[in-house]
User: Which sequence fits this backbone?
């Protein structure tokens, strides 16, 4: 079953959407963006959570549109998605229940990480989700390997990573993208370059690097979710069709609120959504997140024993502290 | 990649050096490794190889000579010189259900991949991101007049990283069985191959015809003795046996324990031996400070202190990079006479 279906057709029932994307798909995108914003709003109010990722880096754009551009299937045959530091709420677009996000963030025992990893979304490879890690560039290497696997197995699948621009200064970023380029692996590397700093690169755009890697490149603004989605879908299609790795630079955007407002405005203008409907969606998203959080808060937290049991997959627990070992049965030879 | 092939479908012969056991011939240490790779690739399509010059060139030491022609370039991948990049890519492939085997041309070059191995690969299962069954293998060790960049032992750079396994075989039999076990294990494994053993004539042996593995985490008593336990691994196993032969003439019996797997370590085997001899000498080729001898000594202190009848000693390389000139390298690396002297001292303590 596909949790994030492609448009049923190219017809636009409303007849007025400036995008070729189907009306229902854009409505679905707006609802997902509203759900993601509701999750983030609630997350920020939770006490005692780790400082990472910092609040100002938790942007739902371009994460949600990027996830939306992919083919998610819950039988593990779809695309694979990850992002380094953007909003974990992008995983909602891949069908991940909000409770799974809260469970991970709050270190609940029922989360795959069981309190061992602080944030992001949990890995759920059946859905195509790979948990983010903070190391700049590391995920470029790993996702290049996932894309390479698709290439070796001749599967029409794509690995898409949303990364921050600061990772582009690392050797890992270079080695991952270069390997994907050399092997024509279907990696789509989306770089959120809105906070580009001269400390990261002197190049006027990241696209300037693309020819050196021999990869195709694309650029879009974050303030236009429809245009961004179209760009991302094009890049994904190119990768899927065998064009090799794709570099997408997201620039000059506004904040999440303005991006959502822009999409809402377009849908209202085309009478694809009413004011009341948008308000209802927003309220429903808030209720959904509140209910999910409430349920997770009632779940058991991780326990000390979870810290070391096990360390190896299916293997032994971590070595216990000496003081915790019962030595009463040992005798001293004289 | 437009030339990707499935070469074995067009009648390419299997690599000779990777199929000697099938023909009833003895194998070297290197050929045992090639056989392990070849047989696992034949029996499990999830296994593939990646590394520098392992395809057309057959690898710096020719471990994978002929593999590209036989398996095709979907199974044997020459990579750019980017150890971090292709080790990270192996992690991604393992996420997708593959069982990649990464070759480091020399294990000295694993350091660029240290980040992805320790921060990403070793923690994946622990973080709930799933197991990453992959092997990073390659040649280690000195004695070849190859200098500081092609002679290192790397085990202690990874030994303190939970989630990794570290294997360091000393015989052709163990090399094949341990590598097969590593490739079937769900944990990431660092597999060290001492290049001085690769083509050593005295290590050539007949291996079992049938498929076999040597379980990870199990040490082996190479030689039984009453007076001193010597715990060692890799190439030092053979130097320790030379020392044991020499001391036997003096009436000193060394018990030689080959760890085979360094992490997780077979504590029970070590303790059993120490409790019988009451003396422990640890021998390793790696440098002294922060070497595995310190960890073994501490474990014996915790678990078998009451059985000790003398100090725990160690014979190791001195704390210096491995130099190029022969006279210098011989001074740096542990020699048979060092083992003899330390064991003799302990036996008489």
Assistant:
């Amino acid at each position: 079953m596909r949790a994030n279906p492609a448009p049923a057709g190219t017809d636009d029932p409303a007849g007025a959407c400036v995008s070729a994307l189907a009306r229902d798909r854009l409505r679905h995108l707006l609802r997902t963006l509203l759900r993601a914003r509701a999750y983030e709003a609630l997350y920020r109010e939770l006490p005692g959570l780790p400082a990472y990722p910092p609040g100002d880096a938790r942007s739902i754009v371009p994460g949600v549109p990027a996830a939306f551009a992919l083919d998610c299937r819950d039988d593990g045959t779809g695309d694979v998605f990850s992002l380094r530091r953007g909003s974990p709420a992008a995983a909602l677009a891949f069908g991940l229940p909000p409770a799974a996000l809260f469970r991970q963030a709050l270190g609940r025992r029922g989360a795959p990480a069981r309190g061992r990893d602080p944030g992001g979304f949990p890995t759920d490879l059946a859905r195509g989700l790979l948990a983010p890690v903070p190391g700049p560039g590391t995920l470029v290497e790993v996702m290049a390997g996932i894309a390479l696997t698709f290439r070796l197995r001749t599967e029409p699948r794509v690995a898409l990573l949303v990364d921050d621009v600061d990772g582009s200064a690392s050797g890992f970023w270079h080695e991952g993208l270069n390997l994907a380029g050399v092997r024509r692996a279907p990696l789509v590397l989306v770089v959120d370059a809105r906070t580009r700093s001269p400390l990261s690169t002197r190049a006027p755009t990241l696209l300037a690097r693309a020819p050196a890697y021999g990869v195709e490149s694309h650029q879009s603004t974050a303030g236009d979710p429809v245009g961004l989605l179209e760009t991302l879908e094009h890049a994904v299609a190119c990768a899927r069709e065998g064009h090799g790795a794709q570099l997408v630079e997201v620039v000059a955007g506004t904040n999440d609120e303005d991006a959502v407002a822009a999409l809402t405005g377009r849908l209202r203008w085309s009478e694809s959504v009413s004011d009341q409907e948008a308000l209802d969606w927003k309220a429903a998203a808030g209720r959904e997140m509140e209910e999910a959080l409430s349920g997770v808060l009632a779940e058991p937290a991780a326990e000390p024993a979870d810290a070391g049991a096990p360390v190896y997959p299916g293997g032994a627990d971590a070595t216990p502290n000496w003081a915790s070992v019962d030595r009463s049965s040992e005798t001293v030879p004289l | 990649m437009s030339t990707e092939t499935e070469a074995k479908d067009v009648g390419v012969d299997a690599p000779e050096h990777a199929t000697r056991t099938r023909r009833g011939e003895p194998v070297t240490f290197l050929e045992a490794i090639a056989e392990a790779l070849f047989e696992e690739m034949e029996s499990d399509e999830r296994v593939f190889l990646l590394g520098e010059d392992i395809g057309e060139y057959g690898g710096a030491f020719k471990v994978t000579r002929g593999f590209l022609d036989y398996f095709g370039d979907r199974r044997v991948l020459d990579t750019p010189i980017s150890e971090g990049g292709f080790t990270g890519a192996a992690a991604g492939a393992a996420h997708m259900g593959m069982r990649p085997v990464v070759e480091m041309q020399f294990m000295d070059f694993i350091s660029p991949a240290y980040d992805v191995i320790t921060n990403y690969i070793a923690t994946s299962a622990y973080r709930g991101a799933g197991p990453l069954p992959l092997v990073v293998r390659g040649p280690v060790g000195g004695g070849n007049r190859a200098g500081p960049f092609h002679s290192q032992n790397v085990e202690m750079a990874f030994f303190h990283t939970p989630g990794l396994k570290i294997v360091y075989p000393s015989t052709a039999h163990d090399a094949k069985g341990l590598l097969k076990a590593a490739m079937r294990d769900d944990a990431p494994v660092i597999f060290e191959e001492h290049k001085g053993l690769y083509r050593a004539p005295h290590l050539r042996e007949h291996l079992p015809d049938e498929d076999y593995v040597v379980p990870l985490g199990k040490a082996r008593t190479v030689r039984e003795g009453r007076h001193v336990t010597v715990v060692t691994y890799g190439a030092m196993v053979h130097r320790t046996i030379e020392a044991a032969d020499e001391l036997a003439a003096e009436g000193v019996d060394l018990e030689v324990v080959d760890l085979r797997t360094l992490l997780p370590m077979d504590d029970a085997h070590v303790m059993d031996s120490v409790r019988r001899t009451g003396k422990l000498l640890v021998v390793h080729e790696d440098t002294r400070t922060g070497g595995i001898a310190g960890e073994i000594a501490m474990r014996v202190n915790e678990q078998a202190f009451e059985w000790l009848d003398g100090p725990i000693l160690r014979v190791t390389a001195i704390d210096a990079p491995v130099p190029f000139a022969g006279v210098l390298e011989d001074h740096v690396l542990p020699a048979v006479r060092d083992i003899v002297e330390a064991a003799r001292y302990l036996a008489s303590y």
Remarks:
- Chain B touches chain A through 44 residues (CB under 8 Å).
- The two ends of chain B are 65 Å apart (CA to CA).
- The CA atoms of residues 26 and 206 of chain B lie 4 Å apart.
- Chain B has a mean pLDDT of 96.
